[in-house]
Amino acid sequence: MALSPGWRAFAPFPVNCRGALQKAVRSSGLPLFPWGHCPWRGTGSFLDPEMKAFLEENTEVTSSGSLTPEIQLRLLTPRCKFWWERADLWPHSDPYWAIYWPGGQALSRYLLDNPGVVRGKSVLDVGSGCGATAIAAKMSGALRILANDIDPIAGMAITLNCELNRLNPFPILTKNILDLKQGKWDLVVLGDMFYDEDLADSLHQWLKNCFRAQRTRVLIGDPRRPQFSGHGIQHQLHKVVEYPLPEPTRRENNGLTTSTVWEFQP
Ligand SMILES: C[S@@+](CC[C@H](N)C(=O)[O-])C[C@H]1O[C@@H](n2cnc3c(N)ncnc32)[C@H](O)[C@@H]1O
């Protein structure tokens, strides 16, 4: 399947590093759900009805083509108008949340296959996107979860995706967590977050602080993107597991063939 011109423009990597976009996105984080600390209220009712309708109209519910068929997600697929449409007609910021990235897929697979890693633990998913890794953590018995993404629309997509998987919604934070005082977490997970050099530097520093201050366990999912493979963080990683990517994910990611879970051990 050839990728549409619109899709190519959305896909920020590995085609092109969209540093300027990333900076713009990074500075725009606002808390989406001030009720985030109160996770047991119903989903849906907190979604702006117009945005909810937009998301439902412009995504498809799918569980196929990824490493985790047990998780259903609303994603942009070839059956969606904007898969084929010119990217500049998309009325919002680039929909990273509408893609289930290879790094997140590997992390989620690992958590589902190894529930002991999260069971009874507090888990922070940084750059949660569609929320799949946070959902995998919840399915595997995590006690406390925070999904963090600076894109408020990602927050809404995560809420819808919790609902799809019959999960009570967990808190979602759309502030830039890198600017906040460190919280205390048993585990921090990051799927496909090392796609921009500046962001990679900031994350590396922040993760070092997390580890030093709290001995927090850190797991990173990445399909060996250049900004990750060429980064200084490589000297502080231990390979946990590598998964072959399913064919549809390979096609959508310009020939990436595997995705790996790494443990950060500075
Ligand atoms: C490539 S996507 C990965 C999404 C998801 N983890 C996955 O693997 O499918 C990167 C996500 O990180 C978010 N992001 C970028 N900078 C961030 C930051 N400083 N803090 C939190 N999220 C960020 C973007 O909005 C985007 O949803």
Automatic annotation (TrEMBL):
InterPro entries: Methyltransf_16 (IPR019410), Ribosomal_L11_MeTrfase_PrmA (IPR050078), SAM-dependent_MTases_sf (IPR029063). It catalyses: L-lysyl-[protein] + 3 S-adenosyl-L-methionine = N(6),N(6),N(6)-trimethyl-L-lysyl-[protein] + 3 S-adenosyl-L-homocysteine + 3 H(+). Keywords: Cytoplasm, Methyltransferase, Mitochondrion, S-adenosyl-L-methionine, Transferase, Transit peptide. One of its GO terms (molecular function) is heat shock protein binding. GO terms for biological process: methylation; negative regulation of fatty acid beta-oxidation using acyl-CoA dehydrogenase. The keyword Plastid does not apply. GO terms for cellular component: mitochondrial matrix; protein-containing complex. It comes from the Eukaryota. Interacts with HSPD1; this protein may possibly be a methylation substrate. This is Electron transfer flavoprotein beta subunit lysine methyltransferase. It comes from Camelus dromedarius.
